[in-house]
Please model this.
Amino acid sequence: MVKAGILGGGQLGRMLLQEAANLPVETYVMELDADCPAAHLCHHFVEGNTRNYDEVLAFGRQVEVITIEIESVNVDALETLEQEGKKVVPAPSVMRIIQNKIRQKQFYRENGIPSPDFVVTHSLQDLHNHKHLLPAVHKIGEGGYDGRGVQILESEEHLHLGFDAPALLETKVDIFREISLIVAVGSGGEMVLYPPVEMVFDPYLNLLDYQLCPADISPQVMWKVEAIGVKLAKALGSAGIFAIEMLIDNDGDVWVNETAPRVHNSGHHTIEAHITSQYEMLWRIMLGYPLGSTALLQSSALINLIGAPGHSGDAAYIGIEKLLAMENVYVHVYGKSQTKPGRKMGHITILGSDRLTLLLKGKQVKEQISVQAKP
Amino acid sequence: MVKAGILGGGQLGRMLLQEAANLPVETYVMELDADCPAAHLCHHFVEGNTRNYDEVLAFGRQVEVITIEIESVNVDALETLEQEGKKVVPAPSVMRIIQNKIRQKQFYRENGIPSPDFVVTHSLQDLHNHKHLLPAVHKIGEGGYDGRGVQILESEEHLHLGFDAPALLETKVDIFREISLIVAVGSGGEMVLYPPVEMVFDPYLNLLDYQLCPADISPQVMWKVEAIGVKLAKALGSAGIFAIEMLIDNDGDVWVNETAPRVHNSGHHTIEAHITSQYEMLWRIMLGYPLGSTALLQSSALINLIGAPGHSGDAAYIGIEKLLAMENVYVHVYGKSQTKPGRKMGHITILGSDRLTLLLKGKQVKEQISVQAKP
Model:
């Protein structure tokens, strides 16, 4: 069996390991929290800091191939491992570009990838020099995650909300659709694209943390989306799974917002809705097998199961039995013992044939489940 | 999270644990072999003997609900656990009936379940008293497994092949079809049936260890199959998954061959081909959730991946990359480090729309993969 390591032990690691059990692979996971979602599903769990050079190096030397499920990892160590002949997916050079949002934007600019225009601001003081560019989006260069490190600055009164660190000041796009395109690249450069997914923000149905696949976009926009995805993946020049978030404006122009070089929240639905899931696909890439088919079996909706506001403590999944009584509804709980407001605790995939059914079933699902703390 | 225990750590346990990771459950596995397929996929692995009273009792006292993935377990200990208020699925009383083939047959007779006629033979000497019943099938009462403990006695010259222990001498059925029906029974007695699966023995295509779903049987036979399945599951009177092997003769009569009170090899295809897999279904039963839908998404073929003759040692999956290049072919490797001739090393599920396509694709699959020992 091939020895394979994953840096990070969250839900993405968990789902990678569920899939690994179908293939001849011996799994290693490194993560600080020994109670993390992936800890009990691997052959070898290593309690360690994925940002520490020595720890990542020692971990990587035990395995033949290594990947990430989080981006805050020690890229220097991964570069050393690559030089020592280990297969690292994605390439450390790509992680280095993506880890820093300023480098990532500069990469888009240098490679002709359409992305909202930007200037670099070095401090809060420097930000004031660019106030004529407002309204704009301010994004911290390093350390942002899951919505943190991004601030919309509508006008001068908001300037104090900006970051006093190297950051991007980006043109605000008038968003018509927000989508995610997942591209899988094999070790030989072969490439397959999943159908893009659409993020739904429906205030009437209160549908946040909700996505639909396939995205509702015109064939013309689809061509641009796919062309940009292929161009970006080629420019990165690395094997791996790349989740590319794109913004589509009212003119039908397509802008790359950001890229994750790993399996991604926007690909959870591929477990049930596509022939090859993103998780199986990453194993195929890591183990040198042929890429799988990305064909869609059914349309799908995905709802993130988020810790309810006001609830911190031992997690209870109130209403889970109601979801399990619904046909074509697939529940994924991540096994985190503690819930807190806004924490990703699981997700629900709904299969269906048409958009309206999926939207309404999604509303039902949201109404029936709540992750709360045990009293 | 509910604490749940599994006795046995083979591939059935492995697939149960892959599915458990979608639900709020903390998993315990007990098995003698610490390198077994399920050992690394549970929260708590206990190296122990599932046939030992004290060990099973101590194991069971750690959890709230307990199930089996093999039948050679200590039923006395499970009865004690049940009396102590643990939920045991299936009920120990059912395991006791099924563990001994003589008791199992007597149960069928007492409950009006059609099953081939039989006499009990207490020794090889006693077998000679019944030689007028040949040709017949001789089955050892306890300890048979996976084809062992069953002997076809065509004529008197074969009598010496019989078992010198309590055994059944059964009428030999002229088999037209051999099928398996999986019935799921919830804690409240609610019941759902999977579409029956057909075992294929095609000497022309060399298709052994091969099954198709749905089985090719007439509506009239289907009614009998389902009626017998429901009657048997009701008579057993226990929650759980029951895989009922049935023989259909040339007159369209249906005979129960034997029942397994657990997830079963003949249900592997439900992972991809049905809305709710047998593994998810067992968790729903154990955790007190509603039963899931057994509806078929697509027709399927299942091929067992068996250790090649003449090969013992570290397993290599020769040709696995060819299977992964085929569309609608799903590979499951059980992670056993050692192969030996005839050992179950994995399975392949093929999805398709018609029987002929599935048969021919099955032939291709069989030709391309071989589990051998590394040189």
